Amino acid sequence: MIQSAAIQPNFSTQNTANKYALRCLLIATLVICCWAACLSYLISIDISSTPIIQLLPLILVQTFLYTGLFITAHDAMHGVVFPKNMKINNFVGGLAVGLYALFSYKKLLKTHWQHHQNPATELDPDFHNGKQTSFLGWYFQFMKKYWSWWRLLGLISIFYLASYVVHLPERNLTLFWILPSILSSVQLFYFGTFLPHKEPIGGYKNIHNAQSNPLPIFWSFITCYHFGYHQEHHEYPNVPWWMLPGVYQRQGAALKN
């Protein structure tokens, strides 16, 4: 499904295409490594006497990196983590969602393409049910669809193994492993589903039933890895997250000409 859905950009030479593919893989690898390095450091430091308010910046940094894990997996679902080799591409995607919260890459791949084929409709698994249209109502309905008791059991098992076998501090695990993953789900939902796909006044204005939230480049990156350029993502699903601002700018320039 990935191969047929992801149409890669055209390149003048094979060397250019190879460089692009390696750059995509390097960025995905960098995100995963930053998440792993930061988590390894944070769960090993002594925070027993540190007020939680002072730990808030560290929690937010780890939340941001958790969001990057999922965005990396999302790019893999579109075949753009390593377009030269789908086995490597899918491995990175599966690794990213596994590290994120033991998600099944295959199941997420299926529902994500249902979303792209039927955005903001009753056939969209990520859309609200027509009743729970508020942020919180839609969020809890959204999360319920991806709930799994087996996955929860797996996460609990990892927590207690890390705590009682590896002897990692429970407070560190709670603040830097559990809490950031939950906060990042809110971040991803708000910037990647709620804002882009909630129906605007006057109704949807394009076939993707999506709108963009074109923040300045820095804040676009910080809020959700440029996922606010959501209409552009639906129009060009083969474009990785770090190229979306360029797509938006080129489209704006074309409209002015």
TrEMBL record:
Keyword terms of this UniProt record: Iron, Membrane, Transmembrane, Transmembrane helix
Keyword Metal-binding (UniProt): no
Required cofactor(s): Fe(2+)
InterPro entries hit by this protein: CrtW-like, FA_desaturase_dom, Fatty_acid_desaturase
Segments crossing the lipid bilayer: 20-43, 55-73, 88-105, 149-168, 174-195
Top-rank taxon: Bacteria
Keyword Transmembrane: yes
Residue intervals of the Fatty acid desaturase domain: 135-250
Pfam families: FA_desaturase (PF00487)
UniProt xrefs under NCBIfam families: BCarotKetCrtW
Family that this chain belongs to: Belongs to the fatty acid desaturase type 2 family.
Protein name as it appears in the record: Fatty acid desaturase
Organism: Gloeocapsopsis crepidinum LEGE 06123
